[in-house]
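Sequence in, structure out. First:
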Amino acid sequence: MSVTLFIDGAAGTTGLEIRERMAGRSDVTLIELHNSRRKDSAARAEALNDSDFVILCLPDDAAREAVSLIRNDRTRVIDASTAHRTADGWTYGFPELEPFQAAAIAEAKRVSNPGCYPTGFLALIRPLVRSGVIPVDWAVCVNAVSGYSGGGKAMIADFEGVNPPSAAHAYALGLAHKHVPEMQKHSRLAHPPIFMPSVANTYRGMIVEIGLPLNMFTRRPTLHVCEAVLREAYADSKVVRIAAGDDKVVQIEDDAGTDRMTLRVCGNPDTGQARLIATLDNLGKGAGGAAVQNFNIMAGFDPVAGLSL
C-alpha cells in the first residue's frame, strides 16, 4: 500500500530531515511543489487537499493557516510547529508518553509533533509522575542544551557565519519559553517547570537534565527505583533506551545523527540526590524523526520505518 504525503515547508531544516527519511520508500508518494509555487496559497491548498497525509514544517501562524486551507475530512495532519501542542482536538504526538498514546495517534486526524526539549523532559519525568515517585506538586527544574540547528536557518547562519556566538549561551532568562505550557500540560505537573535552556556551538544533539532530591520525597525513592520505573515504561520501545547511570561523561553528541533517545538515572545514593539525563538529536527524535514515527503509526506502517536507531 502506498499513501501520498505533502511536506508543507519541505525546504526548511525539519522538512529536509523528513524528506531524507522518506527517500527510497516505496510505500510513500511525495507530493511536491516547484520552488516558484511553494508560497502560492492556491498551489499549497491544492496539495494539502490532494494528500492523504500532510506534515507541516512551518512557523506557528503559517501552520494554523495551512490547517484552515484543508477543506476535506480525509487529509490527516502532523504539525511540527508549536501551534497545536496544547490545543483541543489535537493528539500529542509522543507515542511513548502514555501506554495508550500510540493507539491514540494511530486513530487521530490531527497530531501535534512534540518540541525537542519537551521530548527529553517528558520522557524522563512523566513515568515518574505517573507512578507517584515524583509528587505532582513538586517544583521541577530542568536544564537543557541544544545544538544550534534547533534555531532554524537564522541561528544556523549566525553560528556558521564569520563571527559566530560564544561556545554556549543561555537564553529564555525570563522563564517564559514557549515550550513550558507543553511541558506542564503533558507531564501533568501542578506547576510550570523552571526551564533553563541554552545553545551550544555544535550543529545537532541535545542533553536534557532534571535534578531531584529523592531524600525529600515522602516515599524516599532510590536511584534503583527511578531506573526501574523508566525501564518498565519503555520496555517495548525501539526508540527509547535506558543506559546505565555509571557513565563518566555524557556528551551532547551521544545520540546525534539518530532518531533514538537515551535515558540515564545518575546520582549519589548516599545523599539521595538524582540526575535524570536524556540525550537525543534535536532534529531526530526531537523533530524530523518524531514526525516520521508519527506518520508511520498513523499510516499503519512499521513505526520505525525510515528511522536511524
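Second:
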Amino acid sequence: MVFLRQSPLAPPEPANQAPFARVKAHLKKELSQGRWPPGSLMPSEPELVAQFQVSRMTVSRALRELQSEGLVTRLQGVGTFAAHLGSVSSNLTIHDLQQEIAARGHRHHAVVHLAQEEPCPEAIAQPFRLAPSTRVFHTLLVHFENDVPMQCEDRYVNPACAPDYLQNDFTQLSPTYYLRTVAPLWEAQYTVEASLPTAQEAELLCIDPSAPCLVVVRKTANADVPITLARQVHPGARYQLNGHFKP
C-alpha cells in the first residue's frame, strides 16, 4: 500500500510541549484533514522516530493515546491504521446530577422513596456476578431541579464496596458523589437508549406513561469487584445528554 510521506524534518516544537504531545498533535491534525482515509496504513514507528527525531518510546506513547481515543487501530507486527468512524466510541464521564444542577445556579433536592438491604434480585445477580441470596443495598430516588423532577434513580450497591452506604442522608449527599469517595472505580459500562418509563417511574417523574425518556444504565466495578448498577431515567422533554468530540 502506498501512502504520502512528509519531509523527514520535524516541525518546530512549541514551547513547553512534550515530544510525545507534539507527535500526537501532528498525527491528529493530519487525520482530521483526511490525510489517511479510514482503514489506511499510517507511518510506522521507525518512520515517525526518524521524522520527529524522538525516541521509540515517545512515538509509542503518542500512538497509544490516539488508540485510546479511538482514532487509530494498532495491529502488532502489522502497523497502525486510521480508525473507521464506526469504531470511535464515546467517552462518557460520570457526572453527579446534584453538582450539575448547582453549577447551573439552580436548586437541587432529592426525595428518597426506598433505602433498604434486600436479597439480590435474579436480574441483578447476573451482572453483579453474585448469588441471588446475597444481600445488596437498594435505593430509589427522584432528583429535582427547581422543584421539577429531572431523574429517577434506581440503584443497587454491593455492600462489600460501600458498607456504610445506607447510613447516608441522600437528600443532602447524592449516591454518585458518595460512591466516588468511598469506592473509586476502575471501569464503567454504559447503555443509553430512548425508552418509555415504567408505570412507577412515570408516576415518580410526574409524566405521562407514553412520554419518551432517556434511560442510562450504568455498571461500575473496581478491578473484578462490582460496585453499583444504576438505572437513571430522565424525561426526554426536560433533559439532554451532551458530548464533545474533536479529532
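Remark: The helical segments are 19-32, 45-52, 56-68, 97-103, 122-128, 175-182, 199-205.
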